[in-house]
Design goal:
By secondary structure, the chain is an all-alpha fold. The protein is built from 15 helices and 2 strands. A two-stranded antiparallel sheet has the order 1-2. Helix 3 crosses helix 8 and helix 7 crosses helix 8.
Length: 355
């Protein structure tokens, strides 16, 4: 066989091999390829309750306190008890709970708090969540040793481990036997998916949608902490220009008008409106947070009309730009509403909010 023919056959075989690799062997032939072991390993970071997936490492309570105060305390408080940004992590557990594995406060109707360490049953859940999701503004930025240390510090706050404890992959199973709610998880409710877990039992609850006697229309609000406001770029530029969800302009301080808002509101003509623009209030979900003569989430129409009588253009600007501080700590986000519609609502309020 000539050298040219041999080279031609080798090239043909190589091309066939590449084509076979590109087609893959999964459920979608001809699309993509199977992930390599290295690619799978990069994503396979979960830690199971049997501690499979837990990397080697260790961290002391003292080291964890240092990391906590630098990376965690701003959201959770120095001792994990803060309720200002997220729900408290620590509190509600006792030495007796550690002994029995059941948190007694969960059954008390006079103890409304539900902290993380009251509910979580497995220490692997704490380690895994801290590792993959914390800190909130820089997830997956902690090393394995730092995760061990932060977990140890959090456990020490609830007296699950002593102040001089060093947590590692070698002793974490022993710590599991001291989790306050380790015996609190059950499958008796039959809500777990799959017959291998649920068995033949039927769920102990059946969902029934309630579609009557609703006091107000529900509306979900959220607010970004100042330190993380623009951590991932301007949210307003990352949303499609259609639909109700516009995204906050995170390049500007909370409550300030987006760059696109201002001139159109300032120059919009606000004419007196004598009757309630009910269609606009309903269309723009204003009734989810406001009512005629009582406070819901925000002030009543009557209170706004009294405080800002005759200030139609000011009210129109506030509707579109949002803000906080005038009526309490709960902010009103910027509303995706046209200048014309904002002007009609504002004019009605400025004229006295007649019904």
């Amino acid at each position: 066989m000539s050298r040219s023919r041999e080279r031609w056959l080798l090239a043909l075989l190589a091309a066939a091999a590449l084509a076979a690799q590109a087609q893959g062997t999964g459920s979608f032939p001809g699309i993509g390829r199977d992930a390599t072991k290295a690619e799978v390993a990069a994503w396979d970071i979960d830690v199971r309750p049997d501690f499979k997936g837990l990397p080697r490492g260790s961290g002391s309570v003292a080291k964890g306190q240092d990391v906590w105060e630098a990376r965690c305390a701003s959201c959770h408080g120095v001792f994990g008890e803060s309720n200002e940004v997220f729900n408290p992590l620590v509190g509600g557990t006792t030495d007796e709970d550690i002994r029995t594995g059941h948190v007694a406060s969960l059954k008390r109707t006079d103890y409304p708090a539900r902290t993380t360490l009251m509910k979580v049953a497995t220490v692997s859940t704490l380690w895994d969540y801290i590792n993959r999701a914390m800190p909130w503004n820089q997830p997956k930025s902690l090393s394995a040793d730092e995760v061990y240390a932060v977990t140890a510090y959090l456990l020490s706050l609830a007296r699950i481990v002593p102040d001089d404890f060093v947590l590692s992959e070698r002793n974490i199973a022993e710590v599991q036997q001291r989790m306050p709610n380790r015996n609190g998880m059950t499958t008796d409710h039959a809500l777990w998916p799959g017959p291998e877990i649920r068995g033949s039992a039927r769920p102990d609850v059946v969902a029934t949608a309630c579609m009557k006697d609703c006091p107000v229309e529900g509306k979900v609000h959220s607010m970004l902490p100042v330190f993380a406001r623009n951590a991932h770029g301007n949210l307003a530029e990352q949303n499609r220009p259609v639909g109700a969800q516009r995204g906050a302009d995170t390049t500007r301080p909370e409550g300030s008008a987006p760059a696109s808002i201002g001139k159109d509101v300032a120059t919009a003509t606000v004419k007196p409106v004598a009757t309630m623009p009910a269609d606009l209030l309903q269309k723009n979900s204003c009734t989810a947070c406001h009512a005629t003569d009582r406070k819901v989430v925000g002030p009543s129409w009557a209170d706004v009309a009294k405080k800002h009588a005759g200030k139609g253009e000011y009210i129109a600007g506030k509707i579109r730009s949002g803000g906080s501080g005038s009526w309490g700590t709960i902010p009103m986000p910027p509303q995706a509403i046209s200048p014309e519609e904002a002007g009609k609502i504002a004019a009605w309020l400025a004229a006295g909010a007649a019904q």
